[in-house]
């Protein structure tokens, strides 16, 4: 018996060493943790249960028969994060560069299947050289098995990808299908084709970091939702994100205790500048409304004219979508429509109520926007709001102009409650532009054209640059003093807590992708 126990102990020790101490040192020299160190940081102490520790690859090609590593380059299992069940896989770069073999893929698929069957989030810690080159098509098949499961799991359980090393070629498509991507600055990158191929094809000179590093994907492509300074921060973000979201699509997010106090926020009364064209920071409005320090921004550095993120209101998790008047005047463009649409769909999939803070002058004009498809991209946001069945509340703080008024969670497209501040301007367009069009001939005939334009602008503004026309028609439920916003929202979200809304029976809709 003791021999047999020793054999087992030796195997476990061997498996825990992955590719061996020298490669672990190499990993540390690159400022990267090992697969197991990452899991230790992520999971509650002692909660991780490893599955498939002794799995080995089956390839005999190109000398692989002499390179056998227990676990085959990925640590998989389940455990708890802040007391809640999660499934995790963590690729081990010390074993053949974390490359994905048939057996490696099978291990990932197994825990994805378990996560689906048991309704808990799946977290992938990615650090891999891609398909195990020696295995050929078998490895490609392994990737496809994962992509297929990512797609079936979408909207059923939350899926989060942390990129902590290379993630290149077709391998990028698993994280791309998951709900959130986090990347570590300087040590991770994602691209479909690397700098060498780019140089050959387009003659561009770029480094891996420039092409597909965390900063590029956080601010330019929007592929990653979070850029993290290092792996520790990445794991902190992961845990924080999980705290706002439920285990699966049948459950609600965890709730924190809430003890009602005086919810009046007088500072909100002076947030909007006197001059309607002067910017202000919507993040300050958000901070005044939500529970203290609870805002967790998503896609912080991408399409900053729109703010999206999670927060708590009276202890409950909500998703916030807000125009940002201090960036591009909060205008809707292609990037921000995509950003917000994806966020709205995540929240709707996972029963997270939506709060929209609206101050939008319309859609961004220009050939760049039109030729790149602001029509179909703007439609994504419209579609996402229209089909969302979670409780949805809008607060119009200032401008709600044109089609953007409809798109930004208006009553007409299914919002449950719409509030407006007295500073709201709900109109087809800004007063000056409107006056120039509808009084064109009158202005052109006037001796003092400028004075006439000003007079007509004032006339239009008096009629429409306010919330009362919309309130008279019930498009706005209530015009509120800004200081009561938080109180109103806590009550209204409470009132909507048991909302039941169903979409017409269908296979699935056809969002304009
Ligand atoms: C097998 C691999 C491997 C791979 C790395 N290794 N990638 N083994 N298959 N894909 C091995 C290396 O041979 C090396 O083994 C060890 O891992 C560490 O790699 P290094 O190159 O020493 O590390 P580093 O200098 O940090 O460079 C990392 C790297 C590089 C940039 C990822 O290894 C690399 O370019 N790898 C190939 C990437 C690639 O082309 N993958 C296939 C993409 S196609 P030894 O024993 O020598 O130390 C793809 C298709 C997916 O993934 C399609 C899905 C649809």
Gap from first CA to last CA: 61 Å
CATH class identity of the largest domain: Alpha Beta
Q: What name is given to the CATH topology of the largest domain?
A: 2-enoyl-CoA Hydratase, Chain A, domain 1
Bound molecules: hexanoyl-coenzyme A
Protein structure class: alpha/beta
Continuous helix count: 20
What does the largest sheet look like? 8 strands, mixed
CATH 4th-level superfamily of the largest domain: 2-enoyl-CoA Hydratase, Chain A, domain 1
Beta strand count: 17
Helicity, as a percent range = 25-40%
What does it look like?
- The protein has 513 residues and is an alpha/beta fold.
- The chain has 3 domains: 241 residues, 2-enoyl-CoA Hydratase, Chain A, domain 1 (Alpha-Beta Complex), CATH 3.90.226; 195 residues, 2-enoyl-CoA Hydratase, Chain A, domain 1 (Alpha-Beta Complex), CATH 3.90.226.10; 34 residues, no CATH class.
- The strands form 3 sheets. Strands 10, 11, 12, 13, 14, 15, 16 and 17 form an 8-stranded mixed beta sheet that branches. The protein has a 7-stranded mixed beta sheet with strand order 1-2-3-4-5-7-9, with helices on both faces.
- Helix 12 links the parallel strand 12 and strand 13.
- Helix 12 runs parallel beside helix 14 and helix 16 packs across helix 18.
- It is elongated.
- The model has no long low-confidence stretch (mean pLDDT 96).
- It binds hexanoyl-coenzyme A (HXC).
- The site of hexanoyl-coenzyme A (HXC) has 15 residues, from helix 5 and strand 6.
- Hexanoyl-coenzyme A binds next to helix 5 and strand 6.
């Amino acid at each position: 018996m003791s021999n047999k126990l020793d054999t087992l102990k030796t195997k476990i020790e061997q498996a825990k060493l992955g590719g061996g101490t020298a490669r672990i040192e190499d990993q540390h020299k690159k400022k990267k943790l090992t697969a197991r160190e990452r899991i230790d940081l992520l999971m509650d102490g002692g909660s991780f249960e490893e599955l498939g520790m002794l799995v080995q690859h089956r390839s005999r090609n190109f000398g692989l028969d002499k390179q056998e590593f227990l676990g085959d380059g990925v640590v998989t299992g389940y455990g708890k994060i802040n007391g809640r069940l999660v499934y995790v896989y963590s690729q081990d770069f010390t074993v053949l560069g974390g490359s994905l073999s048939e057996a490696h893929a099978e291990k990932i698929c197994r825990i994805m299947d378990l996560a689906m069957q048991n309704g808990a989030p799946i977290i992938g810690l990615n650090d891999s050289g891609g398909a195990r080159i020696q295995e050929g098509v078998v490895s490609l098949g392994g990737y496809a098995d994962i992509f297929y499961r990512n797609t079936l799991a979408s909207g059923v359980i939350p899926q989060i990808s942390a990129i902590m090393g290379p993630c290149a070629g077709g391998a990028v498509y698993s994280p791309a299908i998951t709900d959130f991507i986090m990347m570590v600055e300087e040590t991770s990158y994602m691209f479909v084709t690397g700098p060498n191929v780019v140089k050959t094809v387009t003659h561009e000179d770029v480094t891996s970091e420039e092409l597909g590093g965390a900063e590029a994907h956080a601010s330019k492509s929007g592929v990653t939702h979070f850029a993290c300074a290092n792996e520790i921060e990445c794991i902190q973000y992961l845990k924080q994100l999980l705290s706002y979201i439920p285990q699966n699509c049948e459950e609600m997010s965890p709730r924190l205790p809430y003890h009602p106090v005086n919810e009046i926020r007088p500072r909100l009364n002076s947030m909007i500048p006197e001059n309607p064209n002067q910017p202000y920071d919507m993040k300050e409005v958000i901070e005044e409304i939500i529970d203290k320090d609870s805002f967790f921004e998503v896609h912080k550095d991408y399409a900053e004219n729109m703010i999206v993120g999670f927060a708590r209101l009276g202890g409950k998790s909500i998703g916030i979508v807000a125009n940002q008047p201090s960036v591009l005047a909060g205008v809707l463009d292609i990037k921000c429509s995509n950003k917000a649409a994806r966020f709205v769909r995540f929240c709707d999939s996972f029963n997270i109520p939506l709060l929209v803070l609206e101050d939008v002058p319309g859609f961004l004009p220009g050939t760049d926007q039109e030729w790149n498809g602001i029509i179909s991209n703007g439609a994504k946001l419209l579609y996402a709001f229209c089909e969302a069945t979670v409780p949805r509340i809008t607060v119009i703080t200032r401008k709600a102009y044109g089609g953007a008024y409809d798109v930004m969670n208006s009553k007409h497209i299914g919002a449950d409650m719409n509030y407006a501040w007295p500073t709201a301007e709900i109109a087809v367009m800004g007063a000056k532009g409107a006056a120039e069009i509808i009084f064109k001939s009158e202005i052109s005939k006037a001796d003092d054209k400028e004075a006439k334009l000003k007079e007509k602008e004032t006339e239009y503004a008096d009629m429409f640059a306010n919330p009362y026309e919309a309130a008279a028609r019930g498009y706005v439920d209530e015009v509120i003093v800004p200081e009561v916003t938080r109180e109103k929202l806590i009550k209204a979200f409470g009132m909507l807590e048991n909302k039941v809304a169903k979409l017409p029976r269908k296979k699935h809709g056809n969002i304009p992708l």
